[in-house]
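Example 3.
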Amino acid sequence: MSNVAAGSAAVAAGLAAALLGIAVTALGLVGRYPRWGHAARLLTYLMGAAAVAGVAVMERALITRDFGVKFVADNGSSTTPAIFNVATLWSALEGSILLWALVLCGYTVAVAVRFRRHGNDLMVAWALLVMFAVSAFFFALMVGPADPFIGVEVPAGYDGPGPNPLLQNHILMAFHPPILYLGYVGFTVPFAFAVAALATGRLGEGWLASTRRWTVAAWGFLTFGIVLGAWWSYETLGWGGYWAWDPVENASFLPWLTGTAYLHSVIVQERRGMLRVWNLSLVIATFSLTILGTFLTRSGVLASVHSFTESGIGPAILGFFAVIVAVSLALIAWRGDRLRTPGRIAAPVSREGAFLANNALFAAFAFVVLLGTVFPLLVEAFDGRTISVGNPYFDRMTRPIGFALLFLMAVAPMLPWGGSTRRAPTELLGRRLLVPAWIAAVALVVAVLGGARGWAALLAFGLGGFAGGAALRQIVLAVRRHRWRGLVGRTNGGMIVHLGVVLVAVAFAASQSYVRQAEFDLEANQQASFAGHEIVYLGSAVVVHENRTERVAFVRVDDAKTYGPAIATYPFASQTIGIPSVRSTLRDDVALAVLSFPDEAGPDRVILRVTVQPLVAWLWLGGIVMAAGTVLSLIPAGSGRRRPEQTAAPAAPAETVA
Amino acid sequence: MPLAVAVAVLVVVLATRDSAVERNASSPILGGLAPPVVGVTTAGESFDLDQWRGRWVIVNFFQSTCVPCIIEHPELVAFSERHAVAGDARVVSVTFDDTAENVRRFFEVNGGDWPVLVEGASEAAVAYGVTGVPESYLVAPSGVVVWKQLGGVTADGIDDVIAQLTAASATP
Amino acid sequence: MRRRAASWTAAILVAVAAFVYGAVAEGPPSTNADRVRALAEDFACPVCSGQSIAESDVPVAREIRRQVAVWVDEGRSDAYIRDQLVAAYDTDIDYNPSGSGITSLVWILPLLAGGGITAVVVVMLRPGRGPARDSGALPTAGRRRRWRNAATWTVAVVVVAGAAGLLVARSSGSRTADGSITGEIRSTAREKIFEAQQRLSDGDMAGAIAAYDDALEIQPSNVEALTYRGWLTSRQGDLAGAAPYLDDAVAVDPAYPDARLFRAIVALEEGDGASAAQDLAVFDSLDPPPYAEQLLAQSRVRERIAEARDAAALESVEALAALEERPAFGDTALSVAEALAASEALAGRGDLLEAVQLLDWVLESRPADPDVLAGRGWLLVRSGDAELFALGVHYLDAALGNDRSNARGLVYRAFARWLHGDIPGGRADLAAFDALPHRPPDLVRLIEDRGLRTALGAPDPNR
């Protein structure tokens, strides 16, 4: 059986299973099919198997270089190294939709398995219905406009161009997209349960408890995926940047912002029963934004390095987005009466007040990013002019929000819940924040002594010290009280995530504020010193790889190791690709990029761009700490100082009727 | 409700947008005074576009290694020769991200005896808003940039444009 | 308790001291390269979708970076660099949206949204004002008051946030430099000249003159402005006022064709044919643009110079004739060219005999001069009389016998042979003329004016 036939069959089977799943759950919901639960689970298995088969067939076609598959003929190459050959799947549109479908099916199967003991809970039926529907959409995309298994006749001896050179020169490319997709797609689960809660009218806290871990996991994947993406662009683009407010970066950042807001505001609903509409809106917004982001970047409407070439899926995705938003808003409007909040905020200076402020800031942050991303399109639509919105705008508008968030990160964990203590919150803060305040002061002194200047970066360092101190204090107290259990559970894991965020924020401020860059024209064995580093150009050599030819410049940094930034020529690419090399230490990074070898015939010369940036490595460390914190927060804290953390319990009907 | 309206507007706007790739960049310098082209040519002579006021001038940006530029070059030679006697149109080439040595070799191989700017080339390229090579601008005798071509030009194509513009300016 | 307060005070003091010192103290000097990089991040690479010119390494990004570096080295301001790039690449190269017009909304809307969110949060945080109470049945008056309160608050939030947004847009959004003080001298003078041209094409001569004056104020040695300022002055009838401008222009750039042409025309109008002829000679040696040639033809400069010269020559010949004892030609100051011109002038007014006699007088001193022989032949050939025609051809043969490559002889004999019906002979003479290294312009024009080439079916050497 050819790969085309097998793959098409797998996709068709997946679509059929998804449609059947919709039918089965729908019949179950109207009470016509009592055994829907069992059937739906079997269908999720079938759908999952179809997706796995589809991906397996595509990977087989890629690895065996079956150029009879159009996707392989367009994107594969006999010379692509093995690991990037596997990664070719997500280097172009059709394959990335296939990967998306696989991840989505994985989540659907997981939900079906996780909630299999919930008998005939209609909430689960609704959730599965939504997940089947979303899956059906993605399978339909692959049957229609984004078919990955189109057969094609190629002449004998044909070899494909391989993926875009930028996508096959760094190992991170093999991990960044799948992890990001695990994050994006993971938000389908809370979305499905939010819709289920609206549909069943069980709007209490049950659905939150059911999906909390799913949401945290998805958030963790998204976070780590974004950090890996930044890392990848830092390592491969060679200008010392890692975040450029590119539309695709923004598209991944938007659901992160709303998702982060939700992770915080959900606590208020659990404790106080407030913010029901808001939380539902955040879940819906997060999911919608993943779809909108997919549209923005996959339809070619916005130009981006990440965007794939044009395709016909734009209208389909946009329509899907519109349906999601319309259905969700209609459901919220329909359930408006039941969404009225029973609780209320007792005191403004309280934990719930801080969470509210936190959400306001995240909402404003997301608004700024969304507006900046789509604004050029709006202006063009209404005014006909073409404009760009980029770095200066986002820097200016998001910086104050970032400062405010850092401040809240320090203060909020110290605040008592409203009405939980008789003491004045200010006195509590005075006691609990003293150590963080000293840490902030010390951080500032150290920074100034280390040569840091400029108010913005210093403010970031000070607030970073404050917030980091607060997180550290909480962790230390928890570990003292509960030993290793003080590191796990939502609250403690959350504090570790906070610590990671502080690391990222400080590293971001330092590397953005104190970056130094220069271009050097060096002859062999010529030395240059820049920003406290000695750089010697030792000469160059041509290295021929199977899929590219590199001219490597050997550069010694600080009398230590020799680094090899290079310029690579790929047979199918119109221009050469620079391969930078970075000497990374905890103190600063020296990034080397070859701009050109100016004299082909003359003496060995190189134009070298040297970028020195402090603390860049801490960005990635911060990302790893955030990921670790997320994992720790998923481990049940067991008998903590508060009531045991609620594991996904069946929604108790009693608490859902308003 | 306002949220729903905002989302609806956004969807409509997004649905009606052309692809970013298809949006053609029209140049803001069209219709205005030609930006200066001043510098030193490969022959070591100083050049100033203003000295050619009163003639049609093709300002051609090129790179010696770019294949479309090599393909385009004979057309420029033909155009230059066609107007050599009448003296009513001329060509000036401006190098783009290139070295003087490469350019000299390029003209030795491909012919052409018009000035080729090497010094001051970056300034001219950025002033004209050049995005890639080859790219050509037609400057009218009045000194106004009247036409822009992304990619290769043809001698007949330029003459057509000149004829059209001459006819258009003669009719009113 | 007191110790805690003291500790807080100390911590805040230390933090604020460090912060203020670090914020105020001079940082390490930032180099031009650092400024280039910072600027490069603020501009979009025009062809590389979503990357700044700092990120991209495509040729255009490299060129723009290079030029930005040049500007930075020249000490240009950020606003200047931005204006230059936007003028060439349009507004979408600027990552910083403009703070005016519809684009300012991108700055204002977030503040409005922020204001709205803040208002909602504040309302929710007001103790005892939970939304739960909203549903309670309030008396109508109370409800109206609540509505009025809400409306007031909404307006206040919109006004405050909107004003803040405007401020942010003003301070952060990109602005266009409206005064062109930033521009360099050369480019602003160019712009003034361009303005003058446009005014001129609109028929606004006074405006054009004013614009040229502006250009000259910026750059007093601008040749183009000097030339056209002088020209326009002369078109207003002020020949004396025009001359200094044109003289200055020629002094600054002796090889500027327009200045030569205009000065020749002005000289002609002042009756100074000799100066005009000099300027025209220089003009001819230059590489004049087509419009200058057109103007030259339209205002019949060449003809008028020739007429003036002919008239002058005739005058001197007649002065000589009026003398009692006419000296030999060789003893006078007359040149052969002048004599020939005078004879043509005499022939032109019908005095063929006098013209022939004049040349005979010249031939007494210069019996073998081929030009004079040819001129004499040419007079006879045109007489219309068959005998004289034959004699004329004889003279032309004689001229060419003395100098086989005499230009006048060749052209005149070509005409003669054409009139005689000897087309191949005429064509041969014309071909010989065309082969000459130097062809006098008046003969070239004669051939063109009388359509000799077409009549003989001879090829045009220029085509």
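Chain B has a mean pLDDT of 86. The radius of gyration of chain B is 19 Å.
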